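Reagents: none. Just compute today. P-type phospholipid transporter.
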Amino acid sequence: TMIIVLQVLIPISLYVSIEIVKICQVYFIHQDKDLFDEETDFQLQCRALNITEDLGQIQYIFSDKTGTLTENKMVFRRCTVSGIEYSHDANAKRLAMYQEADSEDEETLPKVGTLSQRNSISSHQSVKVPYRNQSVKSHRRTGSRVEAK
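Predicted 3D structure written out:
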């Protein structure tokens, strides 16, 4: 009986009108110049009409402007719940250690291929340079991190 009531109360033209509005919204999203990716030379492709409904439900956006996600260095510093701040000082110290290690790595990486450094390493030692997406902590644990002389 509820379906019969809905058919009487909501006309079929309303469903059609909503679908037309969705098509127009997808068209405007597709034509937006700010959503153009220069690296791949492609525009945004909308593959569903309900994209605007889904975008309207987003509550949190995690962005990566500093490399925290790509370099695996996201550290919990603090959160605020109902005006009460909860901080984690140990993680803040660890973040400072990561930043310090990054500055050391930037100084060390160009020197890895020099002749003087190759001569100072004996034949039984192996040198592994940490890449940007690897954790420096794991290299310190194994002792394979290159130290500047």
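Strands lie at 78-81, 84-87.
Action item: order primers for follow-up constructs.
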